[in-house]
């Protein structure tokens, strides 16, 4: 079995407070699965970058890295930019298996959680 890590990959923003929910998700995953290596990385404006996170994980011996976009849906970044980033990382680390998961917002459980939140506001 290969050593697997998960990278929660968010867009990033100039406002440092923007990352707070992403950090909370990362902390919750770590709390619920302490043996799973989970990192948070950003496309732009914030650090670490995806490449920074991957370099650290590869250095720690991870052979399979699953990148989970913390995006509501597939947009230009996920259709164009992220595949190019992953291809570059595959060239740099041919021994590592990279997998790109679907945007988190497209998962049925997330859609239903958002719907439940909307309904709760209606009271």
Largest sheet: 4 strands, parallel
The helix content is 40-55%
Number-wise, the strands total 4
Q: Could you give the distance between the termini?
A: 48 Å
CATH topology: Rossmann fold
User: Architecture in CATH?
Assistant: 3-Layer(aba) Sandwich
Task: Assign the structural class, choosing from mainly alpha, mainly beta, alpha/beta, alpha+beta, or little secondary structure.
Answer: alpha/beta
Overall morphology: globular
- What is the CATH class? Alpha Beta
Protein name: CbiX/SirB N-terminal domain-containing protein
Keywords: Lyase, Metal-binding
Pfam families: CbiX
InterPro entries: CbiX-like, Sirohydro_Cobaltochel/CbiX
Description:
This protein has 123 residues and is α/β, with parallel strands linked by helices. It has one domain (4-122): Rossmann fold (3-Layer(aba) Sandwich). 45% of the residues lie in helices and 19% in strands. The protein contains four helices and four strands, in the order βαβαβαβα. The chain has a four-stranded parallel β-sheet, with helices on both faces. The longest helix has 17 residues, at 76-92. It is globular, with a radius of gyration of 15 Å. It starts with a strand and ends with a helix. The mean pLDDT is 93.
